[in-house]
Write a structure and sequence with these properties.
The protein is mostly helical and 454 residues long. It has one domain (10-449): Orthogonal Bundle (Hydantoin permease), CATH 1.10.4160. The chain contains 18 helices and no strands. It has helices at residues 10-21, 24-36, 40-68, 74-80, 86-119, 131-144, 147-165, 168-194, 200-208, 217-231, 237-242, 251-279, 290-301, 305-338, 343-365, 378-405, 408-415, 424-449. The longest helix has 34 residues, at 86-119.
């Protein structure tokens, strides 16, 4: 086992943890999920899920990690003094490996679109072809090929590996502190522009005036699942980062700040995308293709759209890279502490293995797209399996270990190391963590797997 690194500042912790949470889940997935599931109704449930379930699970994972000062697998065995609980960590690390393989693919798509936005190739629409048809063909052509998506995906994962290889302080923390402000600045620029569009008021009403009649079991399940995916809960990221946090830090405060930053970015993404959607009469229910087919059509039509397009795709890339840094760190820390290899060797070994998985996903969307399981491509199967089964399962088991096995008094002892004693509201969230969150997640998981629709 190699000597442990650590964060050098509170800002670095917040930037890295927020970077983990703020990624494709916020900017790519959140807008199309909100569009598909009723806008304001979905967002209302999403925010409640962040507050009542996400926040306590964040500080719970932080606390477990800091107590154990170990990787995401061994943490569970250390705090329970029983190695059989390490199975939770193995599921979490396995989950993050699967997610990283398709995350790098999607990030590669975005880099591909950025490159063609810069060169102008993305917007060379023939006069004889309708814009909608052209952008659909553009995406299909990219997605059906093998080498272009693979090259750009490899750029994404190698850039991420370069940061991770430098360690926590000089790599993860340093570059998170650079990239997160850039992300916020680009967001502000783009939202200010969106506010000038005719559809801004309609978009605002769509997002923030919920129709309570639109709240259904499907909306509830989807919103909670999105909250977990967005916050990086149940993947070992927060346990891993928690292991590098000083005992001087208030974990509840950090959890609050990460939750707020993540929610703000998700709402920013909605305010950024939907004004353009409503201004140019596109469907908010466009789904996963929203940023790859629908939005380029918007950029084509709007004044200064090409500049807007470049900034938008840079924004997504920055968010995606910060999230992939945390994903890679989970695996790097685990292997680094289980072997005598150097951190650099471990990092590039994991980059190589993840790249093979990414190649399989890319092939599954392209030349091997005929391979399907229950009508789903390889990527769709992995997305469904991790988002609906393994992530919520790890979240449930983590809450159970922290409150039933490790016990709430020990959890509170770790949480008060930052200098703040537990308040009534803190006890309320601990009760949720012990009695409400696990059965709620299990019920929702079973309902989703049984195909509850309403």
């Amino acid at each position: 086992m190699n000597s442990r690194d650590g964060f050098n500042s509170k800002l670095g912790i917040i930037a890295a943890a927020a970077g983990s949470a703020i990624g494709l889940g916020n900017i790519w997935k959140f807008p199309y999920m909100a569009g598909q599931f009723g806008g304001g109704a979905f967002i209302l449930i999403y925010i409640l899920a962040i507050i009542l379930m996400g926040y306590p699970l964040i500080y719970c994972e932080f606390a477990l990690g800091r107590k154990a000062k170990s990787n995401a697998v061994d943490t569970y065995g250390i705090v329970t003094q029983n190695k059989k609980w390490n199975i939770i960590g193995y599921i979490g690390v396995g989950t993050v490996f699967l997610i990283t393989t398709f995350y790098m693919m999607i990030t590669g798509w975005v880099i591909y679109y950025l490159w063609h936005s810069i060169t102008g190739n993305l917007y060379t629409v023939p006069e004889s072809v309708q814009a909608t048809e052209y952008f659909a063909q553009f995406f299909t052509q990219m997605n059906s090929s093998m080498w272009a998506p693979l090259i750009f995906a490899l750029i994404a994962i190698c850039l991420t590996g370069w940061v991770n290889a430098k360690g926590i302080g000089e790599g993860v923390e340093k570059y998170s502190k650079i990239m997160m402000p850039i992300l916020f600045i680009i967001f502000i620029i783009l939202i200010v522009y969106s506010m000038t569009l005719d559809g801004f008021k309609e978009a605002f009403n769509f997002l923030f005036k919920p129709d309570l009649s639109a709240i259904t079991p499907t909306v509830i399940i989807s919103a909670i699942g999105q909250a977990f995916f967005s916050l990086s809960i149940g993947m070992g990221a927060l346990v891993t980062y928690g292991s590098y946090i000083s005992e001087k830090e208030d974990l509840r405060q950090l959890a609050t700040q990460v939750s707020i930053a993540d929610t703000i970015i998700a709402l920013f993404a909605g305010l950024l995308i939907f004004p353009a959607v409503f201004t140019y009469n596109l469907e908010p229910t466009a789904g996963p293709s929203l940023i790859f087919i629908s939005l380029p059509e918007v950029f084509l039509k709007m004044p200064g759209g090409r500049i807007f397009s470049i900034l938008f795709f840079v924004l997504i890339i920055v968010a995606a890279i910060t999230s992939m840094i945390s994903m890679l760190e989970i695996m790097v820390t685990f292997v680094d502490e289980r072997t005598k290899l150097s951190r650099k060797s471990v990092t590039w070994l994991i980059v190589f293995v993840v790249s093979i998985g990414g190649m399989i996903n890319i092939a599954g969307e392209g030349p091997l797209s005929f391979i399907k399981f229950s009508g789903k491509t390889i990527f769709e199967c992995l997305d469904y399996f991790t988002n609906n089964i393994t992530i919520p399962l790890v979240a449930v088991l983590t809450a159970v270990v922290a409150t039933w096995i490790w016990k709430i008094p020990n959890l509170n002892k770790e949480l008060t190391l930052g200098g703040r004693n537990a308040t009534k509201s803190d006890h309320f969230f601990n009760l949720l963590l012990k009695w409400v969150i696990p059965p709620t997640i299990i019920i929702l998981m079973v309902a989703l797997l049984l195909g509850v629709q309403a």
